[in-house]
């Protein structure tokens, strides 16, 4: 390990201390430093001072690593449009559109309509380039006003770790070295290849080589997939099954919900057509939130929310914290859950969620959303009967 590696490792540890100051405001560690160095603002706005101790200046050095993270938009009041990192892309996460002089210090909040909690498309199209305008409008906003929050985009849950910080600094340093090497090679009129392209190029070469090798013929062995049946809820509860899907060719998404009683009978069902292609994580979080809203609207306040997303269900059961952009959608789920007297969470494999799965497939055939009370779409009734036969 060279000196450069040790320095990066030290920076990643200092960034962890800065993260603790940012995310644990009630800790003694935070109270001591805040009273002395940043009494009227957060550590993210703190500045280097001549009177600061070596420890404090070192923590600020680590804070500068965190500033290369990204902001999760809540109400947008703390995020500067042009100074902060907030676009949903890694390279680069800051806005590159030409700055509007009159909006040089403007916050992201001016781009959000307060009453509807939706993006102001007309304003966004007038400020950003078409590519960046599309990125902004694709960011999901919470239906309820929330605080802006810094998250670390290089971990799944958005929580900074020293390991992820070290890897980020190494990758950043490698990119700078490559840029310098590329510039030198261009001066010599030689072709270059980025390290990001090495893996893809190697796969292409391997695929070409594999085609030249004759493949042995193996006998096929029949396998039986693991079957998971839908199970009824306890008496007094309803089971709220939800599913989601993205339709890449049509650039659209869909959500399906089925609410059933202890006998397996459908009490209410719905299919919703979303005219936007969301990411897998976004639509997986939107489906339960939609399902809970629908359940309360039709009068149910005691139930079991069930989906075939193991990651999401586990996060809800464990009350996990997600600081990434998808974390706001998780907060929407918990907010909607507060309207229930009793709400449990359950995971089921796709085979046990086929009624909701068929409903979400139907979502592409409707204009907005469709609701069936005490029934489902006729072609889906057979799936309901299959579930009832399975547990009878």
What Rg do the Cα atoms give?
26 Å
Oligomeric category? single chain
The proportion of residues in beta strands is 5-15%
Q: What's the CATH H-level superfamily name of the largest domain? A: Ribonuclease H-like superfamily/Ribonuclease H
Shape summary: globular
CATH architecture of the largest domain: 2-Layer Sandwich
The span between the termini is 64 Å
Quick one: biggest sheet? 6 strands, mixed
Total of helices: 12
CATH topology of the largest domain: Nucleotidyltransferase, domain 5
What's the level 1 CATH class of the largest domain?
Alpha Beta
What is the mean predicted local confidence, pLDDT?
Answer: 84
Order of helices and strands: HHHEEEHHEHHEEEHEHHEHEH
Care to count the β-strands?
A: 10
State the helicity in percent bands: 40-55%
Tally of individual domains? 3
Largest beta sheet: strand ordering: 9-8-5-6-7-10
Which stretches of 5+ consecutive residues score pLDDT under 50?
215-227
Helix and strand composition category: alpha+beta
